[in-house]
Amino acid sequence: MKHLLTIVLAFSIGLSAIGQPKMPTDSVIVTKHETTIKGQNISYTAYKGTQPVWDEDGKAIATIDYTYYERDGISDRATRPLVISFNGGPGSASVWMQIAYTGPTLLEIDDEGYPIQPYGIKKNPYSLLDVADIVYVNPVNTGYSRILDKDAKKSTFFGVNADIKYLGEWLNTFVTRQNRWPSPKYLIGESYGTTRVSGLALELQSNQWMYLNGVILVSPTDLGIDRSGPVEVALRLPYFAATAWYHKVLPADLQQKDLTDVLPQVEQYAVNELLPALVKGGTLTQAEKQAVAGRMAHYTGLPEKVILQNNLDISTSLFWKELLRDSGYTVGRLDSRYRGIDRKDAGERPDFNAELTSWLHSFTPAINYYMRNELNFKTDVKYNMFGPVRPWDNSNDHTGENLRQAMAQNPYLHLMVQSGYYDGACDYFNAKYNMWQMDPSGKLQDRMSFVGYRSGHMMYLRKEDLQKGNEDIRNFIKASTPGKGVPAKY
Prior knowledge:
With 490 residues, the protein is an alpha/beta fold. The chain has helices at 95-98, 160-177, 192-207, 230-235, 237-246, 252-255, 259-280, 286-300, 304-309, 316-322, 354-374, 399-409, 428-438, 463-479, and strands spanning 2-7, 14-15, 21-22, 27-37, 40-54, 60-71, 82-86, 105-107, 121-123, 133-138, 146-147, 185-190, 214-218, 330-331, 339-340, 414-420, 448-453.
């Protein structure tokens, strides 16, 4: 049930000088809602708004679109956690986690995440809103966020470190406006959003003097941690094995086991045997090379001949094309449970990402309907599922080290990583590798945790993992919220 409450700031949609729809610089629409989460009736307020990005002279050069959900009836916000949510791309809107994971509204899909018609939305009975308030932020050129000043340099926004810097300033203003400085704060990012929030953890701490209780990385990127050469090749193997197991193409001795019994065996082989063999490169004898190819074939479901033809280095794109080639299908990149059909079976990479086209079926109609009809945000500006943010400056990406520094400097700060076993873009074993390399001393391990799910990049699209993933975050928030009077010290 939704009621329009008020328009807090003037909200007018006009046209820019060149005739394009123009977003308001600073505005908010407030609506009241009710839902049921984990069997508990909950009323909440949704703030759908825009907030400026200012330059050093105080001029508004861009406006950031956000949705902020606040549970009603909370007498003490100082003890109530605030979750700040970003998606990735880097040109992707926050739509994915907003209406499919942690938010109070859920898009209509089947229990495995596939589109169904009619497209639409429903209430999310697993949302985090029972335990935390949540804000979903759309960086510049994603969602409804736009650059306002035609003379503003794009380098102000579009780069690893530029992105972190301006969003840190923006969050300072947001937290101040909402009077949330005393609250425990959490950053959650998905995909490139994990790069963003890892960098923000230190940026907020160092330049905004804002300290966090937790960072949640959903399907993390490499966080600027090098893994080129043999390490990169070896780390792919467990993901290949998981996907092959799902499609039932592994040998019987592996296929009859549960996935979580198969993967530790493959992980051990990848690190302890495959990696040393790959380091030897061309000095491997033919017999040694044949033996490695045989083991790789056993764990991946790929023909041994193909592995040898590629000198033991199977790219992910070739894997997606090759695994089900004889059946006439490709497998998805972000979620390898999805199958695609190419123009021809030959070739070294799929024609398209089978999972992404499937997801856009569901998400695009749902978010556009939701913004206009439930949040009463009416505009002719296009909601950018993916916005123009190129060229993106990827130089000096030290975000994994940034997160380590933030954790070292803040004894309250905890980390949780969530990964889907069938994610081929940001695979689960590379996520584990991040955690190993971020903390070479091992002194932060008691504040780091990893959870794997039987799905892909957006593990929450699978109903079972939607429920489990949210519950894992609830438990993480509980574990990382110190008792009253417990000091932050080593």
